[in-house]
Design brief:
alpha/beta; Rossmann fold; Alpha-Beta Plaits; 2 domains; 10 helices; ABC_transporter-like_ATP-bd; transport; hydrolase; ATP binding; EC 3.6.3.-
Length: 315
């Protein structure tokens, strides 16, 4: 059974705005799912609904087998949430902040566990510092410590590295990997495509309140990622020679480079025949290189494709 089970989830706000349009999704225990989407796609609404911050208009959500509406307390006890906004008591000390969060969930005092969490997040040396004295990155670490204080089995990270420098971002990625090794299920929303590429097991893409796809990261990139062969020419062209028309080549704006898209996993890529045909077409090659589609290219293509479809439907 999935750790998080979502079926036909809809959220309609007053005024008729439909933020979630029949979302169905299974999230397995111990996996890291990265949820990508532009601003207003429904990422935060989805997380807020799973966590019980907002009520669904219809549909069903279960966390660890507990319905988030009918069995709220049991479901919420399994969940840790790191929100986008840094909302902490500025005058409270770090240690007390984390202890208090643990107590809110009815957990008995456990100073050894709290120390372990703070050390894991490099906050132990700051335990007696007031929150207002911390940097933005350290405050985000405190948010994670608060979310982990009651030993949740599901952790939601809503844009956790927004505004955090690169070094601190990588430290937090390592923390997420360690949590995964402990068996924690992690759902991450992010604007940083490299974050998803670095740590996610599966990628989900949401736009306009709908899940466009959910797929294993490697399989997604293998299925949708394409390689391009860039052939730089000695002399610029006005158009692709007729003798090379069967290769479906694109010509760069400056006419200096021919671009050939191919499947790197195919038995025959056609590259050998293409390169042999170049001299026959009277072309002189001065450089050749290949590029691989990134997850960002794939993401932009999916979202752009959906937006285009919606425009066609309106038209």
């Amino acid at each position: 059974m999935a750790m998080v089970n979502i079926r036909d989830l809809r959220k309609v706000y007053e005024g008729g705005f439909e933020a979630l349009k029949g979302v169905s999704l299974d999230i397995e225990e111990g996996e890291i799912l990265a949820l990508l989407g532009p601003n207003g796609a429904g990422k935060t609404t989805l997380i807020s609904t799973i966590c019980g911050i907002t009520l669904p208009s219809s549909g069903r959500i279960e966390v660890g087998g507990h319905d988030v509406v009918d069995d709220y307390r049991q479901a919420r006890n399994l969940i840790g949430l790191v929100p986008q906004e840094i909302n902490l008591e500025p005058f409270e000390k770090v240690l007390n902040t984390v202890r208090f969060s643990r107590g809110l969930f009815g957990k008995p005092r456990d100073d050894a566990f709290v120390e372990q969490v703070l050390r894991k997040l490099s906050l132990w040396e700051k335990r007696d510092s007031r929150v207002m004295e911390l940097s933005g990155g350290m405050k985000r670490r405190v948010l994670i410590a608060k979310a982990l204080s009651h030993e949740p089995r599901v952790l939601f990270l809503d844009e956790p590295t927004a505004g955090v420098d690169v070094e601190l971002r990588r430290d937090m990625w390592e923390t997420v990997e360690e949590l995964k090794r402990d068996g924690v299920t992690i759902i991450l929303t992010t604007h940083y495509i490299e974050e998803a590429e670095e740590i996610a097991d599966r990628i989900g893409v949401i736009n306009g309140g709908e899940i466009l796809l959910v797929e294993e990261k490697e399989a997604l990139m293998a299925r949708m990622g394409q390689k391009e062969l860039h052939v730089e020419l000695t002399d610029a062209l006005d158009s692709v020679p007729e003798s090379l028309s069967s290769y479906d080549l694109k010509l760069s704006e400056d006419g200096q480079t021919l671009i050939y898209t191919f499947d790197a996993k195919a038995d025959r890529t056609g590259i050998g025949r293409l390169m042999a045909a170049m001299p026959e077409a009277g072309l002189k090659v001065c450089d050749v290189n290949t590029t691989q589609s990134s997850l960002e290219d794939i993401f932009v293509g999916l979202v752009h494709g959906q937006d285009k479809t919606e425009e066609e439907q309106v038209a």
